[in-house]
Specification:
Shape: globular
Helix content: 25-40%
Number of helices: 6
Structural class: alpha/beta
Distance between the termini: 35 Å
Strand content: 25-35%
Order of helices and strands: EHHEEEHEEEEHEHEEEH
Number of strands: 12
């Protein structure tokens, strides 16, 4: 598991702002900060991807370099995941994209719930690198369901799970249920409340990005 805040960087500023109740009132700034975290996490993930030797012709000669050997498939869970996905796409700008519509179903008296999924669109992912984005990894249930839904489109060579903030419980859950996947996070919070929201977290990332849902 890789966590951005284990090392001090400008990412701490973006994480602080998405948590700040005053700054959250500016939806555009909130989305932009999530996008920035997506860019930083894309860079960190890129360090472990496959590269091949290449040559680039400049106006003054030839430069040897190393370029991605294969473009990844970026998958996000709508709607909350769209800004994080855009940040990843800013860096992996030749990647294919997949989209999943998933949400929490009705809660019972004990606040238990199932994850409902009613939309998925994806290219073939057989033998490719899959990067699955979800900004808030609370219980980990939606990420697990999304990942297994993606497997109907092929078995990826490797999978990265990317989130802005995760609960310790959610991180343990996805690592236990999907040990073949590598987890990249902006930050890790210790608590999860009785409604499965991350504490201190930031609230509902989808509502903060796009407005309250009914």
């Amino acid at each position: 598991m890789y966590i951005l805040t284990e090392n001090s960087s400008i990412a701490n500023h973006f994480l602080a702002e998405i948590r700040d109740t005053e700054i959250q009132k500016d939806r555009g700034r909130f989305r932009k900060n999530i996008e920035r975290l997506g860019e930083i996490l894309a860079y960190e993930v890129s360090k472990n991807m496959g590269y091949k030797p290449a040559k680039v012709e400049t106006p003054l000669g030839i430069k040897e370099t190393r370029l991605l050997s294969q473009q990844p498939v970026l998958c996000t869970i709508m709607r909350a995941g769209l800004p994080l996905h855009q940040g990843m796409l800013n860096y992996f700008d030749k990647a294919d994209s997949a989209f999943i519509g998933a949400y929490r179903g009705k809660h019972d008296a004990k606040e238990n719930f199932d994850i409902e999924m009613d939309y998925i669109s994806s290219p073939d992912i057989q033998g490719r690198t899959l990067i699955l984005c979800d900004p808030m990894i609370a219980s980990g249930k939606s990420l697990e369901k999304a990942y297994h839904a993606m497997l109907r489109y092929g078995i990826p060579k490797r999978t990265y799970l990317v989130g802005a903030i995760a609960s310790a419980r959610g991180a343990r859950f996805v690592q236990a249920r999907m040990p073949e996947c590598r987890l990249y996070l902006g930050d890790l919070d210790q608590d999860l409340n009785d409604k499965s929201y991350i504490v201190p977290g930031l609230g509902d990332a989808g509502d903060l990005s796009y407005g309250n849902k009914t």
